[in-house]
Amino acid sequence: MYSLRQVYSIGGRVSTRTLARQQPIVVRALHAATSLRDEKKDEPKPVEPEATEDNKLEAELAACKEEAAKLATNVKDINDKYMRALAEMENVRKRARTDVDNQKHFAIQKFSKSLIEVADIFTLATQAIKEEELASDPKLQNMHKGLTMTQDALHKAFKDHGLEKFEPLGEVFDPNAHEAVFELPDPSKEPGTVGVVQQAGYLLNSRTLRAAKVGVVRKQD
């Protein structure tokens, strides 16, 4: 009997017909070895299933991470745009509210100043009537009483709506609330204080609507 290596060696040196005459068993072995060799050549290389599955999972994981990063970026962009839109809406509301308040305040101021002029007329009318004339003329007394009552009702309506009259006699001069019309010497009073109120001032919701026109006590030389 010949070994497989010897069969291959013999097959390379002699023809199949010669071997068939001399050694039939060797020929059959040679054919079997040749067929086995060809089958081994045609067989595909084995694939490692675990390695292939791991690579697939890693690729899917990498794709998922990339998609998650994209989604996170999109969410951040959308959130930023949403926050900016909210801020812009809030600014618009504030500006609109401020505009409405300013218009309302301006309208109230304008209307209040018109009413103040009416109140000044009532004040002048009541002050124009002298006490001695009132004592001797009943009709004049009734007219004066009617003017006074109307003036009081007007000032009550002013106060109900935040409009108040003030006469700062004796107070320290305040340029934010007083308008110095003149100075006067008065040793009995503190220099820099209001010695005379020429025209009353008015406050609207605690803010100066019209400064009081006053005479300020001059500092003694």
TrEMBL record:
Keyword Chaperone attached: yes
InterPro entries: GrpE, GrpE_CC, GrpE_head
GO cellular component labels: PAM complex, Tim23 associated import motor
Entry GO MF terms: adenyl-nucleotide exchange factor activity; protein homodimerization activity; protein-folding chaperone binding; unfolded protein binding
Regions of compositional bias (Basic and acidic residues) in chain numbering: 36-54
UniProt KW Mitochondrion keyword: yes
Residue span of region Disordered: 35-54
GO biological process: protein folding; protein import into mitochondrial matrix
Keywords associated with the record: Chaperone, Coiled coil, Mitochondrion
Coiled coil: 54-99
Localization terms from the record: Mitochondrion matrix
Main location as per UniProt: mitochondrion
Record's function text: Essential component of the PAM complex, a complex required for the translocation of transit peptide-containing proteins from the inner membrane into the mitochondrial matrix in an ATP-dependent manner.
Family annotation (PANTHER family): GRPE PROTEIN, GRPE PROTEIN HOMOLOG, MITOCHONDRIAL
Family (UniProt): Belongs to the GrpE family.
Protein name: GrpE protein homolog
Originating species: Sphaeroforma arctica JP610
Lineage: Eukaryota, Ichthyosporea, Ichthyophonida, Sphaeroforma
